[in-house]
Amino acid sequence: MIEVKNLCKHFGEKVAVDNISFTVQKGEVLGFLGPNGAGKSTTMRMVTGYLPPSDGSVTIGGADILDDEIAAKSKIGYLPENAPLYSDMTVEDFLRFSAEMRRVPAAEIEAAIDKAIETCFLQRVRHQSVDTLSKGFRHRTCLAQSIIHDPEVLILDEPTDGLDPNQKHEVRNLIKRMGETKAIIFSTHILEEVEASCTRAIIIDRGKIIADGTPDQLKARAEHAGAVVFRATGLAASGVRQELEKLAEVKSVTVLESGDNGILARVLPNKGRSAALPEAIFKLAVAKGLTVQELKVEEGRLDELFREITRRDTED
Amino acid sequence: MDAIIDLLIHFAIPTVIVSALFIAILLFALPREVRTVFKREVKSYFNSPIAYVCVVIFLLISNGITFWFGGLLEGGEAALYIPYFQYLPWYFIVIAPAVGMRLWSEEQRLGTMELMLTMPIAPWHAIVGKYLAAAVVIFAMLVLSFPIVWVINYLGDPDNGVILAGFVATFLTALCFLAVTSAVSAFTRSQIVALLVSIGICLVLWLGGLQPVSAAVDSLKGGALVAWPFLKFITSIGILPHFSELAKGVLGLGDIVFFVTFIAFCLFSTAVVLRVKRA
């Protein structure tokens, strides 16, 4: 549905987006991750046709965003950053305006408004003026605007920004649910969100894609992926450590707590995540007569990977 | 009785026809997108105090000056050009920018421009829709000026056709100023900046058409003045000569073409500015 090829954007000398390519199919939810200023919003603005790209192309459902502007744009629902709204309208009027602009047939407009209001939990503020809304309601009004014409493609720039934890949860579920029938791109810097609702994630830094994969694949790339946390008693810490380091499956051992009669250690595997390491450690414990209190395989965390690959100078 | 019939034939009926034409164009000739934008903008104008403030200020000033300083009652002549219409464009130099300053600057300040321009519409739909909404505010001002027509008909026997021409000329001039404001407001997110810059440009455009100014510019010709071609250009696109011809009841095709071209050019510039700002 969404095809982005060699997309670039320069602002004067500054390169905001540098040769980004990706595709999103129907039924996919793509998470856009990256530090502030990495080029997430700029990319989304080019995908929605707001900013003209310096180079490269964007195609939405076969229609080029520049050459076939109106056909491409009518397939998109867009929630811009900071959820801008016309402050002099009521929620309902604003949604009616959006529906008319987005070419919802006149006979279906009222039904579309009702549905969007229900989906985004706006019943309570339906007739309220936009400028009296709280941030959460503003955000959801703008979200309602983006789904009012039931678009095939949804582009959401930080859809959960400024929401409370319950609302965040609702919006994530909403995205996940809509993702079954639409092609969705959303940006965030909350990593748990990616795990909660994405089928795929892209990490962008300084305008470049530096990681692309399912959340599980990305987590597996994290430094601690497949590490085993091991707590046992029955032998002094230094002794256990020596024994662990002798195992062929072990790359390194970090002692987290040590004592005369026990150890808590994180053991990194030699060959990535597999069952071989916990098995070997368990056999070792049995052979040495240790009492195992904890044996846990770590999945690797997205925020670790995120920090590892987007690490940069602090003043940057 | 005759006066009333004359007023009807030469003023009221043409006014209704022109208004009906305007509305018909809006409803049938323009695409749905333009109408949608137009509807929203008109509502927004009349939901906020700006339209009312502008209308009231305009009516107070235009009528006040006509009666107290224009010498309407002392002139002894049943005509409106000298005491009324010759002053009207001066007020619009300030009032048209005051009406139009929010057109695109507000859109940029709120960030709604990003919504508007990612909707499946062509930019000109939005530009024209917004412009027409502001034009309605100006139109309302002129319609609400009708008491002066009634007064002059009560006092004497004016040529109501010429008075109508005066209103048309004033409306077209105000629309030119409004179009300038539309282009200027596309440059900035600050309404105040849009207002001041637009007033400045409108003033220059208006003054450039004043006879003494263009004569002074002509007398500079041939000097070492580098800016001469520029000054000549300003005086040659001065709005005033076209306004005064039309307002005196001389319906010249050239003047109409001038107004239409001027407005179209400004609206096109608005589109260019919006495009360049995003690139």
TL;DR of this structure?
The complex is a heterodimer of chains A (316) and B (279). With 316 residues, chain A is α/β, with parallel strands linked by helices.
Structure description:
The complex is a heterodimer of chains A (316) and B (279). Chain A has helices at 40-47, 69-73, 91-101, 109-119, 135-147, 165-178, 191-197, 215-221, 237-246, 276-288, 302-310, and strands at 2-11, 14-24, 29-33, 55-60, 63-64, 76-79, 153-157, 183-187, 200-205, 208-213, 228-233, 250-259, 262-269, 291-297. With 316 residues, chain A is α/β, with parallel strands linked by helices. The longest helix of chain A has 14 residues, at 165-178. Chain A folds into two domains: 2-221, 3-Layer(aba) Sandwich (Rossmann fold); 228-298, 2-Layer Sandwich (Alpha-Beta Plaits). In chain A, helix 3 crosses helix 4 and helix 3 (91-101) runs parallel beside helix 5. Chain A has eleven helices and 14 strands. Chain B has 279 residues and is mainly α. Chain B has one domain. Chain B has 15 helices and no strands. Chain B has helices spanning 2-29, 32-47, 49-68, 81-85, 88-100, 102-110, 112-116, 123-143, 146-155, 160-185, 191-207, 211-219, 228-236, 240-247, 253-278. Chain B is globular. Chain B starts with a helix and ends with a helix. The model of chain B has no long low-confidence stretch (mean pLDDT 85). The interface between A and B is medium-sized, with 29 and 23 residues.
Map the helices and strands.
The complex is a heterodimer of chains A (316) and B (279).
Chain A (H helix, E strand, L loop, with lengths): L1 E10 L2 E11 L4 E5 L6 H8 L7 E6 L2 E2 L4 H5 L2 E4 L11 H11 L7 H11 L15 H13 L5 E5 L7 H14 L4 E5 L3 H7 L2 E6 L2 E6 L1 H7 L6 E6 L3 H10 L3 E10 L2 E8 L6 H13 L2 E7 L4 H9 L6
Parallel strand pairs in A: 3-8, 3-9, 6-7, 7-8
Antiparallel strand pairs in A: 1-2, 1-4, 4-5, 9-10, 11-13, 11-14, 12-13
Helix pairs in contact in A: 3-4, 3-5, 4-5
Chain B lengths: L1 H28 L2 H16 L1 H20 L12 H5 L2 H13 L1 H9 L1 H5 L6 H21 L2 H10 L4 H26 L5 H17 L3 H9 L8 H9 L3 H8 L5 H26 L1
